[in-house]
Amino acid sequence: MNGEMNDVSVMLQHIRNEKINIELSQKEGFSFNPNKKSINMPYSVDLGKPESVHILAHEFGHYLQRNRYSSLTYPASVMRGMANKGHLVPSCYIFLEEIDAWVRGFALCKRIGVSTKGYLGSVLKPLGSYLKPIYRNVFITIKKVISLYLISFTITKILKISSEKDIPPNLPTFLKDDMLLFWSEIQNYTLDAHFTLAIFNVLIIIYFFGRILRFLKSLMEV
Which residues 6+ apart lie within 8 Å of 122 measured at CB? Predict the structure, then answer.
């Protein structure tokens, strides 16, 4: 216990030496505020736990990120806002930023003599919460792509069935010739699935174009 409290004292002193304020908050969890240069810490936190010291080191890692790459402070806040809205790329960016902060926190503990026992356990639980939206987003994207392919396949089958029907006899000759040519083209495509892939490519382009528009819309709202 004394060793743990020594670690707390060493960590808090190092944070204060960097002129970083530690503010108690009613909210759950720790966070670093780059605008106020402060670390928010919940009232209910037990600083006697090694995990709490490791999280402080992690938040200090965020300070080191902002101190080294100050020009990325605003883009990072935008990315967090976008990640909160479920966008995949920003979520991946935030996940990598969190890993980097934990690595910097680990290096800090080593440098100032704070115990790193159980550090990996302190890392895994928070990182899991950042992985969940990535998993969910990837799963939704895969499901959507499969659905679009099935739609493409269904459209091809419908056109193939239609092509096997007789051309209405009362059509003008030039229309009959054009329709026969069209149906024969479809038959050729469906034999090797080119027509299915052609429809699928169009639907995929429309889908991802829609996602890009949604991304840009969210970017304007952040």
Answer: 50, 51, 54, 55, 58
